[in-house]
From TrEMBL:
Keywords: Metal-binding, Oxidoreductase
InterPro entries tied to this protein: Di-copper_centre_dom_sf, Tyrosinase/Hemocyanin, Tyrosinase_Cu-bd
Domain of life, per lineage: Eukaryota
Name assigned to this protein: Tyrosinase copper-binding domain-containing protein
Single GO MF descriptor: oxidoreductase activity
């Protein structure tokens, strides 16, 4: 089976930027890493990833006090950054590149600050879509990312405008696994609040919740959806098929579908990285973009479409290769062009991927 090559990307908004992170410079020099599906990792590898994530949760925040009241630890720094830039990193021309580099920064933090020796794993949606609860990702075992939430009768079904999706059997705090009893520190936001919300980074503790939903996953994260994304003829189409949704209807792409299938914290457009599932979910998105680029590098490697604000609200300039992307306290600003080719600049990694549905564990190098 083929292995597809990749590397990572960047974007702009509100928290100030630090000086250049020297650990990122020049890392694409023969030290290529391979990102693998969660089921392909041995138990020690899964435990190492979980341990590194929990390590970040135990380290102090590096954001200056008062800048983000909800940032109590190093993991929170990544959530705060996503919250702060939400209105300029979704439903636009820099969604893919910003999140690509965001994943890379998280992976580097796990490695450099917590001694993690592996690569960022990903979640192959179709393999588990009909039975999330039995997947090695959500089975609640010590080598999972935790299970479903306790049943919460008052948990609200997920809504897309006037359309409401059927709820799952959870909705409460995560009941089992390494992230059970995890306290999140930023407020949970529903819908898309105004860009000038003065309290978006406030401290508002609550437990990590999940409401695993096989119906949503089976419909929106299926193999046919993945195949449709990969068959996109141009960048505008792949962006649309990944992330577009039609308000008031059950229509949405697998990016939204994966968030909705996991539960309320993952559905929160602002603070969704609060759930460690976020990193593996977006790893799959980056994998698909990487594979799509590799099919026709001459026309796709540096292809952009869209503006630099979400849904072009407010109206903004088109995304360009020289547009500077910001990451607050996580990294310095860099041009979009830096992040379009995964084997250049600061990136050097690939994905281990099996064509078609396959079976969990059926991998070849």
């Amino acid at each position: 089976m083929p292995t597809y090559a990749v590397c990572l990307a960047i974007i702009s908004s509100a928290l100030p930027s630090p000086a250049a992170n020297s650990s990122l410079e020049g890392c694409a020099n023969g030290t290529s890493s391979v990102r693998r599906e969660w089921s392909a990792l041995g138990k020690p590898e899964r435990l190492a990833f979980v341990g590194a994530v929990k390590c970040l949760m135990d380290k102090p925040s590096q954001i200056p006090q008062g800048e983000a009241p909800g940032a109590l630890n190093r993991y929170d720094d990544f959530i705060a950054t996503h919250i702060n830039y939400t209105h300029v990193i979704h439903s636009n021309g820099i969604f893919l590149s910003w999140h690509r580099h965001y994943l890379h920064l998280f992976e580097k933090a796990l490695q450099d600050e917590c001694g993690y020796q592996g690569s960022l794993p990903y979640w192959n949606w179709p393999w588990w879509a009909s039975d999330l609860h039995s997947s090695p990702l959500f089975d609640g075992s010590p080598t999972s990312l935790g299970g479903d939430g306790y049943y919460n009768a008052s948990s609200e079904p997920r809504a897309n405008g006037n359309y409401t999706f059927p709820r799952g059997n959870g909705g409460g705090c995560v009941a089992a696994g390494p992230f059970a009893n995890t306290t999140l520190h930023f407020k949970r936001t529903k819908g898309i609040p105004t860009t000038n919300d003065p309290n978006k980074l406030e401290y508002a503790p609550h437990c990590l919740t999940r409401d695993l939903n096989n119906g949503i996953a089976s419909e929106y994260c299926s193999q046919s959806r993945v195949d449709g994304v990969l068959a996109s003829p141009d960048i505008a189409t792949i962006q649309s098929l990944l992330s577009d949704f039609v308000p008031g209807t059950p229509i949405m792409g697998p990016h939204n579908g994966g968030h909705y299938a996991v539960g309320e914290d993952m559905q929160d457009q602002f603070a969704s990285p609060s759930d460690p599932t976020f990193w593996l979910h977006h790893g799959m998105i980056d994998l698909l973009w990487t594979r799509w680029q590799a099919k026709d590098p001459a026309n796709r490697q540096y292809a952009l479409d869209g503006t630099v604000t979400s849904l072009n609200r407010p109206p903004s300039q088109n995304a360009t290769l020289d547009y500077m992307l910001d990451f607050g306290f996580l990294d310095k600003s860099r041009p979009v062009s830096t992040f379009m080719d995964v084997k250049k600049e600061i990136f050097d990694y690939s994905y281990e991927y099996v064509e078609g549905k396959g079976e969990p564990g059926e991998y070849e190098r």
